[in-house]
Specification:
Number of domains: 2
Shape: globular
Order of helices and strands: HEEHHHHHHHHHHEHEH
Strand content: under 5%
Low-confidence stretches: none
Bound molecules: iron/sulfur cluster
Distance between the termini: 43 Å
Number of strands: 4
Mean pLDDT: 91
Largest sheet: 2 strands, antiparallel
Length: 291
């Protein structure tokens, strides 16, 4: 968990995310499902915490004695041993989990950090008013899913102007007043497609056609049909995986395309040549279907 000016972990003084504490959790775990129990635990941890102690008490299982409320109004939740509370000194050695705690950051937080201030501010508007439990929940907070579409696509949306509608250029603020507003303006984002797997395709389309694609009701269905057709075509290319081939995510190709290969096409290992062949076929299919 990190704290800086504006981060996904600490977006403002009103709430925080504690989704990755402790770093080892069961698959699919969500704090929100255990709100009552965890609220009590946070309160007990906060009251029992003594910042002057330096002894080591290793954590076991899926809870940590060092997670608690960070402010007097019990609004923000986070690590009571974090360096920002000790003038830069990292006290997390006290749980014997120090390296895991220090390394822990989610992909969504990295994508958020890569966004411009304008895009960050826009995307934080719909989550204004959420409490820390709801904000931390991947199920209850749509921002986490949105971020997986990737920073280029989100920048296009946040920086869209009204010029196309014949108005003077004005930055895109109204859709970010609430998630309902956002989906009304960009119905595409109601798609059930995996954002990380399809970011390459959708970003390619938006870079060519503009954000108007995201604003059409029919785009969602078009994209879902396209995704199935692209997969069928790629399977016909007949790539056979073997243990001697490179892990897909290690290839020297754009990461969004590699995410498509792994998560969209289900290819875990492939040669660079094989990946390039699929990329050429996919790019050609996108151009034929949408441009
Ligand atoms: S020590 Fe801090 S960062 Fe590590 S699991 Fe506990 S609360 Fe989280
Ligand atoms: S889950 Fe992500 S956003 Fe939440 S505290 Fe961890 S790194 Fe930050």
């Amino acid at each position: 968990m990190t704290k800086a000016k504006t981060t996904l972990c600490f977006p403002d003084g009103e709430k925080s995310c504690f989704g990755c504490c402790p770093p080892i959790r069961p698959a699919g775990y969500d704090h929100l499902d255990y709100r009552g129990m965890i609220s009590r635990m946070l309160l007990e941890n906060t009251k029992a915490f003594n910042p002057a102690r330096q002894d080591i008490r290793p954590i076991t299982g899926f809870s940590c004695w060092a997670i608690g409320y960070l402010d007097e109004s019990y609004s923000t939740v986070g690590c009571l041993l974090h360096p920002y509370r000790y003038g830069g000194v990292d006290m997390r050695y006290r749980v014997s989990f120090e390296d895991k705690c220090r390394r822990e950051t989610c992909e969504e937080a990295k994508i958020f950090q890569a966004l411009s201030c304008r895009a960050q501010t826009a995307l934080l508007r719909p989550v204004k008013g959420m409490d820390s439990f709801t904000y931390s929940s991947g199920k209850a907070n749509p921002l986490f899913r949105m971020l997986m579409w990737g920073s280029p696509l989100l920048e296009s949306v946040a920086n869209e102007t009204d010029e196309a509608e014949g108005h003077l250029p004005r930055h895109n603020e109204a859709p970010f007043k609430s998630w309902n507003n956002f989906i009304r303006r960009y119905p595409f984002f109601a798609s059930s497609l995996n954002p990380k797997a399809h970011s390459y395709i959708v970003t390619s389309i938006v870079q060519r056609l503009g954000t108007i694609f995201l604003r059409k009701d029919e785009s969602r269905d078009e994209l879902e049909l396209f995704s199935a057709a692209a997969l069928a075509r790629i399977r016909k290319l007949g790539h056979v995986e073997s243990g001697r081939q490179t892990w897909t995510h290690l290839l020297d190709l754009p990461k969004p395309f590699l995410d498509y290969l792994r998560l969209g096409a289900g290819i875990a290992r492939i040669t660079q040549e094989g990946a390039l062949e699929i990329k050429a076929a996919l790019d050609s299919m996108i151009a034929t279907a949408f441009f």
